[in-house]
Amino acid sequence: NNRKVSGRTYDRIFVRHWDTWKDGRRSHLFVVPSAGGDAVDVMQDIDADTPSKPFGGPEEITFTPDSKGVIFTTRNVGRKEPWSTDFDLYYAPINGAKKPECLTEKNGAWDTRPAFSPDGKTLAYLAMAKPGYESDRYRIILKPWPDGKNRVLTENWDRSPSSFCWSPNCETIYATAANTGQKALFAIDVKTGRILTVVKEGSISSPSATGQRIVYGLDNLQSPVELYSVRPDGSKVRKITEINSEKIAA
Q1: Residue 1 — pLDDT band, cuts 50, 70, 90?
Q2: Which SUPFAM superfamilies does the annotation name (predicted)?
């Protein structure tokens, strides 16, 4: 190697994001047919990342009810990226036949975590209201699919949901949110917005409603994450896993 220098020229920021130097590469969303075939970059020419950097994951991506499209979260703002919180939801056909369509263009703040109701009629997602403010409160937004007027389900709730899931009958959304030093699990009535606490103690994560029970992860100062289940009214909590019991007892 006869190179005498190893420098890199940057004409835009980020130069470094958290613990990673930027090298011009992006994380794009590809769709591969389950029966086999070529991977399709559904983001095409978008100069942005999906999942979002540095903490985003699969919760930012979901297929449409007809399986012909995909919804994903990305921050497509060009040179404004370092100081922008304008993450948007995009729709793209899985065959890449059309360029992605921005579904949340009117909101200049954060939009993320798309999740369709089991009947496929409503898209729920989290949204902030204040552009540029990373610590803003998330609201749960309900969007009739494919067309209709958005409704803010939790505008008057002084909590910021972080993860959520639908009930099988589409009547309730179960959401986690920071709550008086804990991270509790709440039940939110989709029609009225009425909120009930299901599990108050511990740090709850990744709720999933199955049948007559809700499965979730729980950790606290006495134990790492274990799986539990509970009835929708908060009764009859059951511990499902004991992965760490022996180590904790030692």
Answers
A1: low
A2: DPP6 N-terminal domain-like (SSF82171)
